[in-house]
Structure formats: structure tokens, C-alpha cells
Amino acid sequence: MSVAFRRESDEEHLEPRFELPIPPGPNLVTARGLRLLEAKVAELEVALPTLSEDDQRKAHLRDLRYWRTRLATAELTEPRADGMVGFGSKVEMLLGGKPRKIDIVGHDEADPASGRIAFTAPLARALIGAEVGDQLDFGGKDAAIEVVAISLD
């Protein structure tokens, strides 16, 4: 019989399940971010014994490995206290003339829709090191950002 007509199993045709990718670089977290990581790991650990289906359990264990790794590598980082924008800062600014508020946080805490952006995001990188009153180039535009206020997380 031709190999084209032979079917060994359904398993050989499934896409492989890879581990969830860990963002490169340090795993900086705010105090809030650390609490969120701890809560996520606890939530996944509590749910684990209730899973009986093999595929569901494997996916859950993969998620649990990711979040345990993120918790184990978390580096609690205090916000800058020198009046400059840094990790953990809350920034009020004018972006293209429109008011905007953001918090600069770690990867796992980031939620752009809520105004929390990762410290590696282009906007955060443009702001880090700035002071109130600074005008910064961003997105190929001169003075696209004006820092209005900086506070700590």
C-alpha cells in the first residue's frame, strides 16, 4: 500500500504544543505586579486538582509553568524617587497635544487599554529619564510628548 493512504494516528498530525514564550530581559515587577503574579499562581494551583480531561490538564500545567517561572524570576523594583520618569512611574503627558495618563509597569502587569504599559514599550522607553516640562520626540515627530506630571506607583 502506498504511504499516501496509510494513517498511523491522529496524534502525528496535531500541531505541537510549545511552552508559552517568556519575554526577553529582566522580569521587573511593581509591588502590585508581584501581588498579581502570586494570585495567578495560587489560582492555577487551586484549579489544577479539578481538571480531569488530559488535554485541558496539559494546557493548564503549561500555563502554571509559565506563571511559576514569572513569579520565580520576578525582580521587585521600586519606582524612582528623583523626579524623573522610570519604572513604576505614573506619567501625565500631552501626546500629540492630547492629555494621556500612563503607568510604566512590568510585562505581565501591562494592560494598554487601562493605561499600564510595559517598560519595554516604545512610549515607555521614550519617557524614561524625562522630567516634568520635558518635550520629547516620538513616532518620528519632534516634541510629540510633553511631560506634565510624574508620580510614584
TrEMBL record:
Gene3D superfamilies cross-referenced by the UniProt entry: Transcription elongation factor, GreA/GreB, C-terminal domain (3.10.50.30)
Protein biosynthesis keyword on record: yes
Keyword Acyltransferase: no
Gene Ontology molecular function: any one: translation elongation factor activity
Keywords: Elongation factor, Protein biosynthesis
Transcription elongation factor GreA/GreB C-terminal domain boundaries: 82-150
InterPro entries per record: GreA/GreB_C_sf, Tscrpt_elong_fac_GreA/B_C, Tscrpt_elong_fac_GreA/B_fam
Descriptive protein name: GreA/GreB family elongation factor
Origin organism lineage: Bacteria, Pseudomonadati, Pseudomonadota, Alphaproteobacteria, Sphingomonadales
